[in-house]
Amino acid sequence: MNCPLRSWDQYESELHRWLLGHTPDRTDAEDLLQEVFLRAIHQGKHFCELSDPRAWLYKVARNLLTDRLRLSKAFIELPEDLKAESNQIATIDELSACLPRVLAELYKDDYEVLALCDLQGMSQADFAELKGLTLPAVKSRIQRARKRLKAQLAKSCQVQFDAAGKVWCAYSS
């Protein structure tokens, strides 16, 4: 077990300086250095048989550094005009709570076409075949069901829509 320690003593300070130059934080560099040391110790006699222990130590250090950098996601503060308002998050939560109730209040045919086509992803053509309808009839049925769903959301959940028809705010009761 003495072999890894002997090579370690020879390259530790050099490797430490290299890590300090490649990490944003001294503590990170020291943590990585310790991890390289532990990997060398775990190699045991295989480390002693390496033809170039210095290259192996740098390779391990570089890989550990790469892994650390991949895991640390940098957070960038968004400009004020891009930040979501807190009521938008509340709107999504309130709408998520209200939507299942409103879907259950729809007519059976409206619920079925919306559930299968819009929620479960069935194609309109497959729905038409399943129900023995023409494709234009299914398209009309979906449009009417969506209008009734929108009206029911406005009534039951006090959902408001913007000019483009997108949800603007919701106040579920």
SSE map:
Blueprint: H1 2-22, H2 26-43, H3 45-48, H4 53-71, H5 86-105, H6 108-119, H7 124-131, H8 135-157, E1 160-161, E2 167-169
Antiparallel strand pairs: 1-2
List keywords for this structure.
8 helices; two-stranded antiparallel sheet; Arc Repressor Mutant, subunit A; 2 domains; mainly alpha; Rna Polymerase Sigma Factor, Chain: A; 173 residues; 2 strands
Task: Report on this structure.
This protein has 173 residues and is mostly helical. It has two domains: 2-71, Rna Polymerase Sigma Factor, Chain: A, CATH 1.10.1740; 84-169, Arc Repressor Mutant, subunit A (Orthogonal Bundle), CATH 1.10.10. The chain has eight helices and two strands; from the N terminus they run ααααααααββ. It has helices at 2-22, 26-43, 45-48, 53-71, 86-105, 108-119, 124-131, 135-157; strands spanning 160-161, 167-169. It has a two-stranded antiparallel ribbon. It is elongated and about 80 Å long. The relative contact order is 0.09.
In terms of per-residue confidence, which ranges show pLDDT below 50 for 5 or more consecutive residues? none
* CATH arch. level architecture of the largest domain: Orthogonal Bundle
- CATH-defined fold name of the largest domain: Arc Repressor Mutant, subunit A
* Number of helices, counting only DSSP H or I runs of 4 residues or more: 8
Helix share bin: over 70%
CATH class of the largest domain: Mainly Alpha
